[in-house]
Amino acid sequence: MFFIPAAHAQAAPTSAGDPMMSFAFMIGIFALFYFIAIRPQRKRQKEHQDMLGKLAVRDEVATASGILGRITAIEQDFVVLKVADTVEIKIQKWAVQNVLPKGTLKGVGAAGEKK
Fold first, then answer.
1. Which of 61, 53, 99 is nearest to 77 (CA)?
2. What is the DSSP letter of 104?
3. Integer Cα distance of 21 and 71 in angstroms
4. pLDDT at 18
5. Interior CA angle at 87 toward 82 and 92, to 5°?
6. Fold designation for 56-108
């Protein structure tokens, strides 16, 4: 018969470390995440809201989907864009991505402009 020596279980070392260091590490990770992700996103969101609040009729804009046009009317949460001579579309205000410099549409031949 084979003799199997009895295994003696050893307790794992219980060095949990300093709880204050763990807490400081967690705070450091949160601060890093805040400055890398949260703060820049809030800044971009605020800039976009300011831009939407300043929209005016005859502004040339680009939408989030890439449509270029000139604003012909502004309603509550919508803007009407002239994208060609006889084509106007109504989009939600939040879809306006950028206000373009004056004359941009003339350069690309959009919104009923003749080249």
1. 53
2. H
3. 56
4. 82
5. 55
6. SH3 type barrels. (2.30.30)
- Residue 2's SS3 state is coil
What tokens does 82 get?
């002239």
Integer-rounded Cα radius of gyration of the chain: 30
Residue listed under structure tokens 């609040």: 53
pTM over 0.85: no
Question: How confident is the model over 93-108, as pLDDT tens digits?
Answer: 999 999 999 888 887 7
For 43-85, the pLDDT digits (tens) are 999 999 999 999 999 999 999 999 999 999 999 899 999 999 8
Three-state DSSP string of 11-72: CCCCCCCCHHHHHHHHHHHHHHHHHHHHHHHHHHHHHHHHHHHCCCCCCEEEECCCCEEEEE
Structure tokens at 106: 């003339």
Q: Using the Cα atoms of residue 97, residue 99, residue 104 and residue 109 in order, give the sign of their dihedral.
A: positive
